UniProtKB/TrEMBL annotation:
Protein name, per record: 8-oxo-dGTP diphosphatase
Gene Ontology molecular functions: 8-oxo-7,8-dihydrodeoxyguanosine triphosphate pyrophosphatase activity; 8-oxo-7,8-dihydroguanosine triphosphate pyrophosphatase activity; 8-oxo-dGDP phosphatase activity; 8-oxo-GDP phosphatase activity; metal ion binding
Domain (Nudix hydrolase) ranges: 1-126
Organism the protein comes from: Aurantiacibacter zhengii
E.C. numbers: 3.6.1.55
Length: 126
């Protein structure tokens, strides 16, 4: 299964993270926004769709830079492709009622993160 997610940075170098709803897989843990790529869907299009659904932000493919990936599990194996964007995108709105925020990399690392998101975050910290 392919999942796409976005590390969106603001002008202060903080990254946007959101909290997974309670009751879902990894409920209550923090993650980069994104979601599953549908069959026959181009991954970058899936990411643009998910960001619009979750945060009300209209992104353009040209704003998205492929960054890192992580993988875990079997049956199904999950591959998470992370993109970055550092361009101003307007004010996010939590359209699915989720908590979200801008975090420095140190603040982000102190949150309870979903496992693949933690691995990906550590790539930015160098
Ligand atoms: N971001 C993230 N997702 C993970 C991790 N481990 C893991 O199994 N997943 C799964 C949970 C979800 O099935 C999927 C992420 O896609 P999603 O955000 O659209 O999932 P969802 O829970 O909203 O949707 P659903 O499973 O209820 O259909 O990847 C992880 O470490 N980080």
């Amino acid at each position: 299964m392919l999942v796409v997610a976005l590390a969106l940075f603001d002008q202060e170098g903080r990254v946007l993270l959101q909290q997974r709803p309670p009751g879902k897989h990894h409920g209550g843990m923090w993650e980069f926004p994104g979601g599953k790529v549908e069959v026959s869907e181009k991954p970058v299009k899936a990411l643009i769709r998910e960001i619009a659904e979750e945060l009300g932000l209209e992104l353009d493919a040209a704003m998205l830079e492929p960054a890192f990936f992580a993988e875990e599990g079997t049956d199904p194996a999950i591959v998470l492709n992370l993109y970055t964007s550092r361009q101003p995108v307007g004010e996010p709105r939590a359209l699915e009622g989720q908590d979200w925020g801008w975090f420095s990399l140190a603040q982000a690392a102190a949150l309870p993160l979903a496992p693949m998101d933690r691995k990906l975050l550590s790539r930015f910290a160098g």
